[in-house]
Amino acid sequence: GCAAAYSLGIRGARVVVIDEADGAASGASGNPRALAVPYMTRAPSGVGEVYSQGFKLLHQRVRELAPYPLG
Fold first, then answer.
1. Which of 3, 4, 26, 29 is found 20 to 30 A from 55 (Cα to Cα)?
2. Spatial separation of the C-alpha atoms in residues 22 and 66, rounded to whole Å
């Protein structure tokens, strides 16, 4: 939800996030280390392309938001 809200927000949409939990990210994916493990397919497929594009976008965002240059 937060990733979608952020993505829409940087594109100019006015976004309001409503969450039933008491605090931000209380119901997140449950990945405590924030690891990104893309699902890779052996043969080209629509699902594989979605994961590939998502992983590329994540990599780009991490480089943009990192407080120091990444090698």
1. 26
2. 28
Segment 48-58, tens digit of pLDDT: 888 888 888 88
Say if CB 55 and CB 38 are below 8 A apart. yes
Three-class SS state of 42: coil
Contact between residue 51 and residue 40 where contact means Cβ atoms under 8 Å apart: yes
Please say whether the beta carbons of 49 and 38 come within 8 A.
no
Q: Which residue has the tokens 């006015």?
A: 14
User: pLDDT band at residue 1, thresholds of 50, 70 and 90?
Assistant: confident
